[in-house]
Design goal:
With 293 residues, this protein is of the alpha+beta class. 17% of the residues lie in helices and 23% in strands. The protein has one domain: Sandwich (Jelly Rolls). This is Phytanoyl-CoA dioxygenase family protein.
Length: 293
């Protein structure tokens, strides 16, 4: 059994790699999509997975959710229920790319890599960390309104990006993402408890921000993704429906991002001293920029 973080290339044939510029171009976002991202702070309905890839990832998810998995110790975080309330279950973990080949290889999905580089200004892209967010049917918990970078200030400068991809269809009924368009221009707010009260962030907003707080739901078919800015306010409501809502998240940053802490950036990761470049085993370069060879 290996720590898959040692391998900075795909280990399976699940995500075929482009070989020519023409192969890469099929994955490029349009100018309209990129303009929408910069104006609103997100772009949604980007297809990342086919049915075979969805099924492989769902199988891997069922395996890594088991606390008895022999590589369980490689997780950076593992919360069977981050809310602590059995009536509002939110499974949340970080680090499963180290454990399951399918989740390792999805980081090298060319559709993801190309979009991430474009949205970061055609910059080279490094992996930051992954997450799983799973809400069971009938008693799935919420994710409170928050900004991702409020949890990531141990890295500078802010040149990060989040990709959320569903493994189930995400609907308003089962607790899909909700975005507040334009909130990426509000500046950095304080961080609430991620699985805490839905409106915990509201107390940290100005009157002007409260007036502009107009969330929009982002329903997505399984295998489709949304990308968002690190300051975009977002969250998701509880799942009281009869359908589960399983999703994974890939967080990245532009190459050249620095550590801003002398503490470990993630549990189990060696310290990168403050001011030094984020790189190495746990933060691999996943896209060099432009059209790769």
């Amino acid at each position: 059994m290996k720590d898959l973080a040692d391998f900075h290339y795909p280990l399976t044939e699940l995500f075929p790699q482009p070989k020519t510029d023409a192969d890469w171009k099929q994955y490029r976002l349009s100018k309209d999509q990129i303009d929408f991202f910069h104006e609103n702070g997100y772009v949604a309905d980007v297809r990342l997975l086919d049915e075979k890839q969805i099924e492989a990832l769902k199988k891997a998810l069922d395996e890594v959710m088991d606390p008895a998995h022999p590589l369980h110790h490689l997780f950076h975080e593992f919360h069977s229920n981050e809310s602590g309330d059995p009536n509002k279950v939110l499974f949340h973990s970080l680090g499963h790319w180290r454990i399951a080949e399918a989740f390792h290889d999805v980081i090298w999905n060319p559709a993801f890599r190309m979009a991430a580089s474009q949205l970061l200004g055609d910059r080279p892209v490094r992996f930051w960390h992954d997450q799983l967010f799973c809400k069971p049917a009938h008693h799935g918990g919420n994710v409170a309104w928050h900004q991702d970078y409020s949890y990531w200030t141990r890295t500078v400068e802010m040149q990060h990006l989040t990709c959320w991809c569903g493994l189930d269809d995400a609907t308003e009924e089962n607790g899909c993402l909700q975005y507040v368009p334009g909130s990426h221009r509000w500046g950095l707010l304080e961080k609430p408890a991620l699985a805490g009260e839905m409106d915990g962030l509201m107390a940290m907003m100005s009157d002007e921000q409260k007036a502009g707080f107009k969330p929009v739901p982002i329903p997505l078919k399984a295998g489709h993704a949304a990308f968002h800015h690190p300051l975009l306010v977002h969250g998701s409501f509880a799942n009281d429906s009869g359908y589960s809502r399983k999703a994974f998240v890939l967080n990245v940053f532009a190459d050249g991002t620095l550590s801003d802490s002398d503490e470990p950036l993630l549990a189990g990761v060696p310290v990168i001293p403050k001011g030094e470049k984020m790189k190495g085993k746990f933060f691999p370069l996943v896209f060099e920029g432009g059209l790769e060879n």
